[in-house]
Design brief:
- Pfam families: CBM_48 (PF02922).
- Keywords: Glycosidase, Hydrolase.
- Belongs to the glycosyl hydrolase 13 family.
- The chain has 683 residues and is an alpha/beta fold.
- It folds into three domains: 111 residues, Immunoglobulins (Immunoglobulin-like, Sandwich), CATH 2.60.40.10; 434 residues, TIM Barrel; 115 residues, Golgi alpha-mannosidase II (Immunoglobulin-like), CATH 2.60.40.
- The strands form five sheets. An eight-stranded parallel β-barrel has the order 10-11-12-13-14-15-16-17.
- Helix 11 packs antiparallel against helix 14 and helix 14 runs parallel beside helix 15.
- It is elongated.
- It starts with 12 loop residues before the first strand and ends with a strand.
Length: 683
């Protein structure tokens, strides 16, 4: 067992008891720690100051009846000067384990003792199997701010997300899990405040146990942190009752204290030397690009992460976590990444987190920071290789072919991604280790991906220097808004091809909120600082958006109904693997794909036949045709000994999905226009 899981680190923060409470704080370098208690109304009025005593293993403790539900408090910590130390006994610091916060003034906070009691009314977590999971990445405010059927008082709030109107949309779409951008308490960086902007995304954590209060209703904020926490739990309960899981995007890699010279709000004043990665001279080792990096090679920082995860899973009933810049968490004392880092393994093995979904963003900006495919068993990962290949195939390759008369590559790499990225993830982990995505909060929306060749980020105040320069996008003939009907139709089909690929690929699909209705950010691919209509979903839909929504609903349903599309494991050529999908590949003539055709840029058409090998239930077979050039083509359905017909389930060609399901015979020829997909069930 890692040392950080030992009893010495138990019960940090406030623990309530029948005769008061205890407060335990860890600091290796402190020479004194005081608990400072404030008046409930005047948060500058100190009503008591109590010293903490060392109790061993660098833990300090105080027991007092002055700590009770509703108490506002802070810490004062003193210690030595010198390289790496930033103690200042005049600083009023946040308890790292505080369950609630209240603001005093800009950049200053008080910790609050909260009441965790809540009636879950017997509502159980959905526990959706990973192969049936469809993730929907969303921002609490952006998703709900403009929804016409949500009461205005609930716009932009936890309560708005839990409202029946929003749940109905998610259920009709077929979503099984909402992945929320950070809801840990966070604050806006001084640089953005100076520019009159805000940190909208929330990747600037202030506290790892307290929910972000501004996402609560005005009524709950006025009532205090207890009410904010209750409103959040009510949202989770409502989603669970509807069969929808809640996954949190968590930012344990850095904090809102930024670089040296930034705020001293918590860790920096408690034990800067222990909590942040740094050189011997105290200079920070920043592998996050955010000014500091939490040093999870130390026991206290590693335990803090584990305790935070346990709290959200146990007390708030959160179903999973997506770890921002997860490579940072897996760096050792020499700052090198290891998939066997004690913290990464402890998260997977912790009984308190059993059944919780764990998703890594498998990179950071440090040396050796790109680690896609290298996390261990128990982890799923955002698959940026999938994103890049799918974008290339449907967008930048097509753009290249218009200018060069031929595509740059064949279809082989795309087919590997479609079938579960076996060249990235080990046989032990299988295709469900891959969280497939085409877009995310960071980057172009789906509509912008097919409408802009370059980013348009001037509104961010950074002279268009921020945001990715390589987007693998294609505007299809005009930059941004256009009234050209041909360009618009081609863009709409490109969106259908991208969504079809995403939802018919092996792995776990993640849809970005608003892509199902063609949301635009007008070419801004880094809208992190805009809390405005630019980033809020507009629910007033044009007819083409209703059509796109119908396609997404159909695709999600087909994924649910056809196990061959969502295998647990990779198939093997020599023996049957349970819960895998055995794949055969055919060309446009219905013949087995030749080696030459996999790599030949002139041949970008394939037929993908997958048959499930279930441990329970009946086998299922699908045939998916993919055509990746702008030239029309005739495709001959393969003649296979035991196949009697092909039931048409979905095509990317029509503006709105067909309701009919005609049956085609083996050997029958179907005509496809340029760049298209067609899915069949095999009988």
């Amino acid at each position: 067992m890692p040392a950080f899981l030992g009893a010495a680190y138990d019960d940090l923060g406030v623990t309530l008891g029948p005769e008061g409470a205890s407060l335990r704080v860890w600091s290796e370098g402190a020479t004194s720690i005081d608990l400072v208690i404030f008046d409930a109304v005047d948060l500058d009025w100190i009503t008591a100051t109590l010293p903490l005593a060392p109790v061993g293993e660098d833990v300090w403790e105080v027991r007092t009846a002055d700590l009770r539900v509703g108490t506002r408090y802070a810490l004062r910590v003193d210690g030595p000067a010198g390289a790496g130390h930033m103690f200042n006994p005049s600083s009023l610091l946040i308890d790292p384990y505080a369950r609630g916060l209240v603001p005093v003034r800009l950049g200053e906070w008080r910790s609050v003792v909260v009441d965790d009691a809540f009636d879950w009314q017997g509502v159980a977590a959905p526990r959706t199997p990973l192969d049936r999971t469809v993730v929907y990445e969303a921002h609490v405010t952006g998703l709900t701010k403009r929804h016409p059927d949500i009461p205005p008082a609930l716009h932009g709030t936890y309560a708005g997300l839990g409202h029946p109107a929003m749940i109905e949309h998610l259920q009709r779409l077929g979503i099984t899990a909402v992945e929320l951008l950070p809801i840990h308490a966070f604050e806006t960086e001084p640089r953005l405040l100076h520019q009159g902007r805000t940190n909208y995304w929330g990747y600037n954590s202030l506290a790892f146990f307290a929910p972000h209060a501004p996402y609560a209703t005005a009524e709950a904020i006025a009532a205090g942190p207890d009410a904010v926490l209750r409103e959040l739990k009510e949202m989770v309960r409502a989603l669970h009752a509807a069969g929808i899981e809640v996954i949190l995007d968590v930012v344990y890699n850095h904090t809102a204290e930024l670089g040296i010279g930034g705020p001293r709000s918590s860790f920096r004043g408690i034990d800067n030397r222990a909590y942040y990665r740094q050189h011997d001279d105290g200079a920070y080792i920043d592998v996050t690009g955010c000014g500091n990096s939490l040093n999870t090679a130390t026991d206290a920082a590693a335990r803090l992460v584990i305790d935070s995860l346990r709290y959200w899973a146990r007390e708030v009933h959160i179903d999973g976590f997506r770890f921002d810049l997860a490579v940072t968490l897996g760096r050792d004392g020499a700052h090198a990444f290891s998939p066997d880092h004690p913290l990464l393994r402890a998260i997977v093995d912790d009984p308190a987190l059993a059944g919780v979904k764990l998703i890594a963003e498998p990179w950071d900006v440090g040396i050796g920071g790109w680690q896609t495919g290298n996390f261990g068993a128990g982890w799923s990962e955002w698959n940026d290789r999938y994103r890049n290949r799918v974008r290339n195939f449907w967008l930048s390759d097509v753009d290249y072919a218009r200018r060069a008369a031929t595509s740059p590559v064949g279809i082989g790499g795309f087919a590997t991604r479609l079938a579960g990225s076996s060249n990235t993830f080990s046989e032990e982990r299988g295709p469900l280790a891959s969280v497939n995505f085409v877009t995310a909060h960071d980057g172009f929306t789906l509509r912008d991906l097919v409408s802009y060749d370059v980013k348009h980020n001037l509104g961010n105040g950074e002279q268009n220097r921020d945001g990715a320069d390589t987007n693998r996008s294609f505007n299809h003939g005009a930059e941004g808004a256009t009234d050209d009907p041909h360009i618009l139709a081609t863009r709409r089909k490109a969106m259908r091809n991208l969504l079809g690929t995403l939802l018919l690929s092996a792995g776990v699909p993640m849809i970005t909120a608003g892509d199902e209705i063609g949301r635009t950010q007008r070419g801004n691919n880094n809208a992190y600082c805009h809390d405005s209509p630019l980033t809020w979903l507009n629910w007033q839909l044009a007819p083409w958006q209703e059509d796109l929504l119908a396609h997404v609903r159909r695709l999600v349903r087909l994924r649910h109904d056809n196990p061959a599309l969502r295998p647990h494991r990779y198939a093997h050529a020599a023996y049957e693997v349970p819960n895998s999908s055995v794949i055969d590949w055919y060309d446009e003539h219905g013949e087995t794909m030749s080696i030459e055709r996999w790599t030949n840029p002139a041949h970008r058409t394939l037929q993908y036949l997958a048959q499930s090998t279930p441990e329970q239930g009946e086998p299922n077979r699908i045939l998916l045709i993919v055509h990746g050039t702008e030239h029309p083509i005739d495709v001959t359905l393969p003649e296979i000994e035991d196949v009697t017909g092909y039931v048409s389930l979905w095509s990317s060609v029509p503006e709105r999905p067909d309701e009919d399901e005609p049956v085609l015979a083996p050997g029958e020829v179907i005509a496809l226009p340029g760049t298209a997909m067609h899915l069949f069930r095999v009988t």
